[in-house]
Structures are given as structure tokens and as C-alpha cells.
């Protein structure tokens, strides 16, 4: 169930020393959310193009860590953040502001 998956991701975060992946920063982020080369390239491009800031980069990596955790729960091999984790996190970042308020319609 969704609730069980969320609980598992939260348990993984607690094992990393934080209550949620959003609290990962600095050395913890480097340790628990390393990047494959392809993922790093995507982030470098986003930074260079001005689509994200340095602060946004930290937040994006923590979201990508959560996406990777969900992949691993579903059976994907553990490892560094992959390009698909980072691109999905970027897509969510771009999509969510456009959806603000949609539940208030009608």
C-alpha cells in the first residue's frame, strides 16, 4: 500500500539520522545521495541554465533520494542517484507550482 511505502521511506530516513529525506544536507546528503555521472550532468545543466539555485539543488537531491528509495522498495538495486531519479525530481519541481490551487476549483 501507499502508506506502507511511505513508512518504509521514513524508516530509511531515520536510519540515515534524519526524520525525513528533506532534512538531508551537507555531508549527510553527500553520503546518502551520491550521484551517478549522468545524474550529475543533468543537475549541472539545470544549475547552468538557471532552472535551479544552489538551495534548489539540495532540495532536488533530497527529493531524488526519496524517489530512489521508492524504486528500491519496488526491487530496484540500491546505489547512487540515477538520471531518472533526478529528472523525475526536476519534473515534479516544474509541475507542482502549476497545480497549486487546483483542488480549490469548483
List the defining traits of the structure above.
mainly alpha; about 110 residues; about 0% strand
Please report the total strand number as a whole number.
0
Biggest sheet layout: none
Relative strand content: under 5%
Radius of gyration: 14 Å
Order of SSEs:
HHHHH
Specify the helix fraction band.
Answer: 55-70%
Number of helices: 5
What does the average pLDDT come to? 89
Approximate shape: globular
The assembly state of the depicted protein chains is single chain
| Ends apart, CA distance between termini | 30 Å
Weakly predicted, low-confidence segments:
none
Provide the structure class.
Answer: mainly alpha
Give your account of this protein's structure.
About 25% of the residues are buried. This protein is about 65% helix and about 0% strand. It is an all-alpha fold. Helix 1 crosses helix 4 (about 55-75). The termini are far apart. It has helices at about 1-15, 25-30, 35-50, 55-75, 85-100. The protein contains 5 helices and no strands.
Describe the structure concisely for a colleague.
The protein is an all-alpha fold and 106 residues long.
List the helices and strands and how they pair.
Blueprint: H1 2-15, H2 26-32, H3 37-48, H4 54-73, H5 83-99
Helix pairs in contact: 1-4, 3-5, 4-5
Amino acid at each position: 500500500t501507499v502508506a506502507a511505502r511511505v513508512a518504509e521511506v521514513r524508516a530509511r530516513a531515520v536510519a540515515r539520522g534524519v526524520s525525513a529525506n528533506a532534512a538531508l544536507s551537507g555531508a549527510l546528503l553527500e553520503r546518502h545521495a551520491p550521484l551517478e555521472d549522468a545524474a550529475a550532468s543533468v543537475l549541472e545543466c539545470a544549475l547552468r541554465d538557471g532552472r535551479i539555485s544552489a538551495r534548489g539543488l539540495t532540495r532536488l537531491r533530497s527529493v531524488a533520494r526519496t524517489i530512489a528509495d521508492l524504486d528500491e522498495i519496488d526491487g530496484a538495486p540500491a546505489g547512487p542517484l540515477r538520471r531518472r531519479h533526478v529528472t523525475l525530481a526536476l519534473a515534479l519541481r516544474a509541475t507542482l507550482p502549476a497545480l497549486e490551487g487546483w483542488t480549490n476549483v469548483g
